[in-house]
């Protein structure tokens, strides 16, 4: 439950993540956003039950999800047109249409591994590099996020519209929440993900070398040189920076 990381999106958004479905069955929801009385969206790990406000995504192609195999997915909503779009591995597989006038509640919260409409049923799989954007990503952007691969840093091209970076999840999982965010081993020397999960990152002090090793993937760290990477740092970032 990620309520301290409430992310203000208003008229449009895109949520993307790499997902690994590890439990058989349906209605295993890996993400829910909204309030218990007013849902904004929910996503099952087989992508067959995805809703945005009062509208269900109508699939144009049945998603082929294999157990224990990573896939990339994005869900977007355009408040101006009411159109929502669901992608699997860079391909548009479903759309929906919401009613006029629907709005994201100011007190909306993001939940992982749980949905209030599926009591007692949990996701039980793995997530990697979940990113929340405050804009509707274009088709070519979604395609690029998938085709560049799970270990690429292509998502950093869109940091100006990113409202909830994956780094926040890593830190919050470590210090506050009972949601296991499992690292993916990226062998490439050019990937910053190895650094993010190394022992020299969490619980250590921010250094110039660390920022350089991350290839400036999180440039706000430079401003906090010498600060211990802990929950107080995250509170500073959340309350004093608009990302």
List key phrases describing it.
single chain; 243 residues; alpha+beta; 7-stranded antiparallel beta sheet; globular
In this structure, how is the largest beta sheet organized? Answer: 7 strands, antiparallel
What percent of residues adopt helix (DSSP H or I)?
10-25%
- Note the beta-strand portion: 25-35%
Mean pLDDT: 79
Category by helix and strand content: alpha+beta
How many DSSP E strands? 12
Q: What order do the SSEs take from the amino end to the carboxyl end, as H and E?
A: EEEEEEEEEEEHEHHHHH
**N-to-C terminal Cα separation, in Å?**
21 Å
Q: Which parts are unreliable, with pLDDT below 50 for 5 consecutive residues or more?
A: 174-178
Give the overall silhouette: globular
Rg, nearest Å: 17 Å
Oligomeric organization of the protein chains: single chain
SS summary, helix count? 6
Strand order of the largest sheet: 6-9-8-7-1-11-12
Folded structure, characterized:
The chain has helices at about 140-145, 165-175, 195, 210-215, 220-225, 230-240, and strands at about 10-20, 30-35, 40-45, 50, 55, 60, 70-80, 85-90, 90-95, 110, 125-135, 160-165. The longest helix has 10 residues, at about 165-175. β3 (about 40-45) and β4 (about 50) form a beta hairpin. The chain has about 240 residues and is of the alpha+beta class. Helices cover about 20% and strands about 25% of the residues. The chain is built from 6 helices and 12 strands. The chain is globular and about 50 Å long. The chain starts with 11 loop residues before the first strand and ends with a helix. A 7-stranded antiparallel beta sheet has the order 6-9-8-7-1-11-12. The chain has a 5-stranded antiparallel beta sheet with strand order 5-4-3-2-10, with no helix packed on it.
């Amino acid at each position: 439950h990620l309520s301290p990381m409430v992310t203000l999106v208003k008229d449009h958004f895109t949520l993307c993540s790499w997902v690994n479905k590890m439990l058989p069955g349906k209605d295993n929801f890996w993400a829910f956003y909204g309030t218990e009385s007013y849902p904004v969206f929910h996503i099952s790990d087989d992508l067959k039950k995805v809703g945005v406000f009062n509208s269900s995504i109508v699939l144009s192609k049945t998603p082929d999800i294999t157990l224990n195999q990573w896939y990339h997915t994005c869900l977007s909503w355009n408040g101006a047109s009411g159109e929502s779009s669901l992608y699997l591995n860079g391909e548009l597989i479903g759309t929906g249409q919401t009613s006029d006038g629907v709005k994201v509640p100011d007190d909306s919260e993001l939940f992982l591994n749980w949905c209030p409409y599926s009591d007692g049923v949990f996701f039980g799989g793995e997530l990697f590099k979940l990113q929340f954007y405050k804009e509707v990503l274009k088709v070519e952007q979604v395609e690029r996020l998938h085709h560049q691969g799970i270990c690429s840093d292509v998502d950093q091209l869109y940091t100006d519209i990113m409202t909830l970076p994956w780094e926040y999840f890593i830190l919050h999982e470590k210090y506050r929440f009972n949601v296991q965010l499992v690292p993916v081993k990226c062998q490439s020397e050019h990937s910053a993900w190895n650094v993010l999960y190394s022992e020299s990152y969490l619980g250590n002090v921010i250094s110039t070398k660390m920022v350089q090793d991350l290839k400036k993937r999180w440039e706000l760290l430079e401003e906090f040189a010498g600060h211990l990477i802990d929950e107080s740092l995250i509170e500073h970032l959340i309350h004093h920076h608009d990302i």
